[in-house]
Each structure stands twice: as C-alpha cells, then as structure tokens.
Amino acid sequence: MARLKMPEAKRPGRKAYLWISLVALGLVLLPFLFWYQTWFGRALSPSDLDHLLTNTGKPRETQHALVQVGERMGRGEDASRWYPAIIALVDSPNRELRQTTAWIMGQDTRHAPFGAALHKLLRDPEPLVRRNAALGLAKFTHQESREELRGELRNMLRPYTVVSPTGGLLKLRLQPGEYVNAGTLLARIGETEVRSPLPGEIRAFHAADGTEIKIGQPLADLSADKDHAWEALRALLLVGEAADIEDVQRYARGVANMPPQVQQQAALTLREIQSRVR
Predict the structure, then answer these.
(1) Which residues pair with 171 in a beta bridge?
(2) Residues 6+ apart with CB under 8 A from 31
(3) Between the N and C ends of the chain, which has fewer C-beta atoms within 10 Å?
(4) Rounded to an integer, what distance in angstroms lies between the CA atom of residue 278 and that of residue 268?
(5) DSSP bridge partners of 212
(6) What SS3 class is residue 135?
C-alpha cells in the first residue's frame, strides 16, 4: 500500500515575522510610552515648563510641569520666571490644577502675590483646593484671612458631610466602615455618579439604598483623614488661637483610627497655642 506523503508545513515568510515583531514591540512600547508620559518624575526642560504652564489643553501635562516647578523650589532654585503662569492657574476650570497650584504657592512665602492668590483659593468650591490653600496660607506672616483659614484647618479635623448634588433614586455602592479616596464612587442618584470629594472612612449614610433623595440632602458622613488631620495640626501650630483649642485637644486625647504621630503632633500644637493665648 502506498504511503500518503504529508504535505510540508509552510513556514511563515519574512513579512509575517516582521508583523509579529511589530506587534510584540507594540505590546511592550505602548505601556512604556503611556507610563513615560504620565510619570511626574520625567525631567522637563525650562522650555517644556514654559510651554506646559501656559498651554493647558492637557491638564495632566500641566500638572506635571507644576510638580517639577515645585521640586525646583524645594531645592532652593530660582523658579520666579514661572510665577505669573502659576498664579494664572488659580482661575483654571480644572480642579486638579487649582489643587496643585495651591500646594506650589505655599512653598514661597516671600512672594506676596502668592498670598493673595491663596486667599482667593480659600473660597474655592472644591474642599481639596480650599484645604491646600489653607495649608499654604498658614505659612505666610500677614494676618489677612487668618480667621477664614483657621476655620478651614478646623474643618480638616472634623467629619465631612457629602450632600446630594441632585435628586432621584439612590443606589449605594459602598458600606459604612469602608475607606474612600477623593474621587471614589459613593453612589448613583438616577444617572448621576456621586464621588467622594475627600478621603476618609464612611461613618454613615443618611439615606437607605433604593430610596428617593432630594438635591442638597445629606448623603454620607466621612471621618477626618489621618494625613489631613496631621497637616492641619502642623499648620495650627503656626496660626492656632484660643478658638482652635477644643478641636486640637480632642486629637491630643486620642482619636480612633488615628496613628500615634497625629496624637503627638496634637500635643505639640496644643502646648504652642496655649503658650500664645495665656
């Protein structure tokens, strides 16, 4: 019986190997390029900073530039050439840019226009922006808006209530006791997503899942975040007055779920405030 001859397997041509290599390269290169473009550690030249701080069409890249200017300031380098562009970002519609701008301006307390710009951000609609503005403004020596910034610092030591931005059927996404970061999805009201404006632990929801909720109605209580509390206590060490003692004392006695360094900072802050008001 004649044996059938199996056909030889056809080997891929050079073009096929080329396409396979390109696909493999793309699988490696694309994630790298994405990481490279979003990594804030990538060094930017002065001309890059000039461009990105004044062309804000890509907020993530502008934020990268702000962080790099802040690092230069932290090293004691002269970054004043970018100060006008930084102040202009106070009016940005992008929350992250205003938030980062407030942090940057708090690093040079000798530049008076930064103090005026921080005073403006102290009234920002976003709590994270207001908090960064208060922390930065506490380092300035002038007395303007002292009461307002101290009020914001006290808010950082207290629970925060998230209110409903709209009315409709409530669908909760999380449970009390869960920790959230700023931007975490808390619930949906109808078709509207409700995200947490601040980090913290969910202490309670004010409405039950599946019920109707009205616009402006309290939705959830968040505990104070440990990092925010620590920063607020450090700022109150500089600007705290008698009206702040009660909030600081509570942390000095110890607050649940707060690390020991927060209690230690509260004790230092309390002693400093008491020494000033005697």
Answers:
(1) 188
(2) none
(3) N
(4) 16
(5) 169
(6) helix
